[in-house]
Amino acid sequence: MLDTTANFDNTLKIAATELGIELEAVSAEQRLAGQPHTGSATLGEFNGSEIGVWEMTPGAMSDVEADEIFIVLFGAGTVEFEETGETVLLGAGDVMRLREGQRTVWTVTQTLRKVYFA
After folding, report:
1. How confident is residue 88, by pLDDT bands cut at 50, 70 and 90?
2. Which of 52, 59, 92, 95 could bridge across to 42 with cysteines, CB 3.0–4.6 Å?
3. Which domain holds residue 107?
4. Percent of the chain with pLDDT over 90
5. What is the CATH number for 85?
């Protein structure tokens, strides 16, 4: 995943839905279906938490999560939790909590972009 830094510390506003994010192909080890691409832009820190924007194109991939709260800006998909088998549907406006070490499968049907706090 590429990490492009946008300087949020020196500005009052960033249009997160329009922010340019460089995407690269998900590694073969993580890719489960399709040809998904991901990328992120780090915006800065707030009270010790990293704030950024992450995007994934359609497809499916496995991941091991960091401790994070995120808000979906646009797109659609699901996150399946391997430990419990629970699947959560995601869409614009949804807020979700992930815990460090959770093993997940992300399946994106419409390019999904989120703002995260980690």
Report:
1. very high
2. 52
3. 2-117
4. 81
5. 2.60.120.10
